[in-house]
């Protein structure tokens, strides 16, 4: 189901020196709202840390999963903007890009059922390690069915969002 999975850059262990400009580094706090936020990110000089490229650079269709500290939020990358992921994000690349949204929906379902609480380790800072994530057995339909299911739920999400906006702005009678 996954081609590969990488834990983000260990910025503390690698003694990363941030810069005033360069490539942004996302942490789990940048994906918890359901969209990728580039607000208040730290920067890394690409020339100084070439070993981080392209391993820690997500591409369209990759799934980002917050697995350290804040556990559970996930998002599918939909931007071609170059950025890096930090230590508290697991970057997963599906074997088939059409599976991305479906896998992310499954992760959301597991999160809503507190599944990750069962496989969390650590004392001061809780985390779900990469091997535990990769060891989760998921029943997965064909790519065609995944696509249709994902389209249905995306449509449902859009409809809910529309109704929330209508209600929020008092456009209903």
Automatic annotation (TrEMBL):
Keyword Kinase: no
InterPro entries reported in the protein's UniProt record: Restrct_endonuc_typeI_TRD, Restrct_endonuc_typeI_TRD_sf, Type-I_RS_S_subunit
GO molecular function list: DNA binding
GO biological process, one term: DNA restriction-modification system
Keywords: DNA-binding, Restriction system
Domain Type I restriction modification DNA specificity: 29-167
UniProt keyword DNA-binding present: yes
Family per record: Belongs to the type-I restriction system S methylase family.
Protein name: Type I restriction modification DNA specificity domain-containing protein
């Amino acid at each position: 189901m996954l081609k590969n999975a990488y834990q983000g850059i260990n910025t503390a262990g690698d003694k990363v020196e941030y810069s005033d400009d360069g490539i942004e580094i996302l942490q789990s706090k940048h994906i918890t709202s359901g969209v990728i936020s580039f607000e208040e990110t730290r920067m890394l000089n690409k020339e100084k840390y070439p070993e981080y490229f392209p391993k820690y650079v997500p591409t369209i269709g990759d799934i980002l999963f917050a697995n350290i500290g804040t556990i559970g939020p996930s998002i599918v990358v939909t931007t071609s903007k170059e950025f890096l992921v930090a230590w508290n994000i697991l970057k997963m690349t599906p074997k088939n890009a059409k599976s991305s949204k479906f896998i992310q929906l499954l992760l959301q379902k597991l999160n809503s059922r507190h599944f990750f609480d069962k496989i969390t380790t650590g004392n001061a800072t809780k985390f779900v390690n990469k091997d535990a994530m990769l060891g989760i057995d998921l029943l997965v339909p064909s790519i065609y069915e995944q696509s249709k299911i994902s389209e249905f739920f995306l449509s449902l999400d859009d409809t809910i969002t529309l109704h929330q906006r209508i209600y929020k702005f008092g456009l209903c009678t």
